[in-house]
Amino acid sequence: MKTLWDHCHAATLTGGKYSIIEDAAILTDGARIEWIGPRAAAPEIGEGERVDLEGAWVTPGLIDCHTHLVFGGDRSGEFEERLEGVSYAEIAARGGGITSTVRATREASEDALFEAAKRRAFGLMREGVTALEVKSGYGLDLANERKMLAVARRLGHALPLTVRATCLAAHALPPEYANRADDYIAYICDEMLPALVEEGLVDAVDAFCEHIAFSTQQVERVFRCARDLGVSVKLHAEQLSSLHGSSLAARYQALSADHLEFMTEADAIAMAQSGTVAVLLPGAFYMLRETQLPPIDALRRQRVPIALASDLNPGTSPALSLRMMLNMGCTLFRLTPEEALAGVTIHAARALGLKATHGSLEAGKCADFVAWRIERPAELSYWLGGALPNRVVRGGAEIDFERIAR
Fold it and tell me: Record-annotated residues binding N-formimidoyl-L-glutamate (predicted)?
């Protein structure tokens, strides 16, 4: 059925800009946008429905393109200890840190992981998120990586939400492979990835390229495996040091390279040439009290698309608000509100391989959008927390959050 969403202002985000249409209307046909333009030029809808948006500002549905949404337990106790002076090394030495999350995730049932992840996803959706990525990486063996990715698939079926599942088995070294990183990479490539891809659980493959994780040579082996399996890649790169992982990602036409605090101009040039998106994660930067800023000017000079994401995870970014990341992207990284909004819409869609269908308000794309009771788009980056009144439309239908919550 056709619906005319009338009486609004639209920030379409085409071309990575606000691309504003004042006094606009949007015509949807089922789950797709059929037309968008000035209200005075709106086509006739015949027997279709007309919805008065009462002067709201409409943006594309927000996209969280980097999350670790599925995990067992939390690490709030460790957060408290660190504030009291206990070092991360001390915590890790007694089985804390990522090891504790791996243990809790392995011990949790699929149903328990699903219910916890569903609650987190619901909070993001209330803020206007209509698509997100879910990474694995806290299972670190075939059975538990499969369990995490199965939860991601369930979320996409159970909620009015587009979910992309990314296998991050090369996230950390599991306890049973202590001091045997090459053997673990072989296990990922020879057993885990082929099985998980065959089961239809993987949309992309990620890895953590860092001194405390995996080398560029080890990551490249994972990338070659993913390429042979026909799966796109992305990479955690340059968060703590410069290993030129982002250039490696660019050589494999990665969808994105994420974090990037220590990337160089040469890395930015490589990413620009490959079309790889730079995903910035201000939540982790804030929580870890980092001081090394991502090279925003280099990314701008080279015209690398810049996305923002929550990096929602239990250790370094327990961020339940993508809209808060808009503000952090502006205040910490000096993005403009326009760049920040593009970072959670059109560029985030590209980082998930969804640019053809998501991320902007254009005819032929998915009818995912948010009608905000605000005076100008910059308010989305301006307000610190709190619920901004909105109506969230996904696939051409307004989401009934009260029904979902029951």
Answer: 138, 313, 315
